[in-house]
Amino acid sequence: MGLDLGQVVPQIEEMASRLKDGWKEAEARLALALKTLQRHQGAWQGLGEKCQSARTTWLVAGLVEGLGEPHPLPPLPPQFSVLGVDGSQIALDRHMPVRCYLINGGLARLHYGREPSAGLVRRARLFSREEDLVVSDPSGLRAEPVEGALLAARRWLEEVAFLGEALNEEGPFPVLALLDGSLVLWGLAGQACPDFVRQALLDRGLVPILDGMEAMARKGPLALASYISLPRSTDVVNALRVALCPYEPPDCDRHCRGKKDRECNGVTGVEDRALFTLLLKVGERSPLFLTRSSVVEEHYGRHQVFFFYLKGDEEMARVEVPSWVAQRKELVDLAHALVFDQVKRGGGYPVALAEAHEQAVVSAQDREAFWSLVGEVVGYLPSATSQKSQSKRTRWV
């Protein structure tokens, strides 16, 4: 037995005691956030302008449709389709004799209405060419290996491409194209990611796929959305932090560097979902907000990312949509109604995403079988397998 739980028990008890002590303070912060929202709700445009001019060290939502006003659940169309996609991967293993990785995609195609039907598809793709294993600077002087956050980004792009190809086969009736997680590739944000990587994966990878989806949406009602379960975002609460700031315009570095008793600290730690749990009834959504992520502003072109919060029976979810959905009320209503319907049908989580996940998931046995197959097929090639890998595959008494 590798873990001595006896050592962990007192640490868990100390953690529980500390959390209980923080509950009252958390309730006070949430109450202040709600009060601040209600105070600015009637004049949210002014707060939106203040947020736009603010220079903060945290991400602030753009206010475009209001602040806390609930939007009722729209009716379902009589006939519609939902396409959900998910993916998983077998990462490159440096202890293996060959350099490669695999991305497994799962797609659920669900039709509702007069002739309901369902289809499930899975697609496995092996990546082993040099251009698959690294993202290279056009100058040829630098290259980033496709692993970690970069592999996650590559897998997500495969999911979006898979979804785009499937949409080409859909009919003219309303369609919801659904992704799991955020539309924002946060793994490519920040200075740690070279700009040539963002250009390769976003400018030349993601944007053309979104262009194609936008073109389809001009021919018939199509809404692209992503579903985030149990979101930890604070973008809207951060707008309330701006509201509490006494400076005009707010500038964290100039006015509050090193300051511990900042006015905005009164709502620090409050998450958006806690706030909207108090404001929304089941089936309602929040106003639309704009994400002001730098990676989106600089690399998504006209496909800026908007989001709203949606209250289901079991949880508060965050739903993200591109600008060409956000700017058409009928598509926002379509995303709102169909995502909620999917959540209801799935017992708290969109059924299309749950089914897509079942097609995409790669088990530990699948990984072992994959590497065994690779070893059998390329075993005649000169290669080296690490002794660490050999040790893991050997039974010791």
CATH class of the domain at 80-227 and 328-365: Alpha Beta
* β-strand number: 11
Helix-strand sequence: HHEEEEHEEHEHEHHHEHEEHHHHH
| Average residue pLDDT | 91
Describe this structure in words.
By secondary structure, the chain is an alpha+beta fold. It has a domain at 80-227 and 328-365: Nucleotidyltransferase, domain 5 (2-Layer Sandwich), CATH 3.30.420. It is built from 14 helices and 11 strands. It has helices at residues 5-40, 44-53, 130-133, 149-167, 195-219, 235-244, 252-255, 272-279, 294-299, 323-326, 329-345, 351-360, 364-377, 387-392, and strands spanning 62-63, 80-90, 101-112, 117-127, 134-136, 143-145, 175-180, 222-228, 289-290, 305-311, 316-322. The protein has a 9-stranded mixed beta sheet. A two-stranded antiparallel sheet has the order 5-6. Helix 1 (5-40) crosses helix 6 (235-244) and helix 4 packs parallel to helix 5 (195-219). The radius of gyration is 24 Å and the shape is globular. The mean pLDDT is 91.
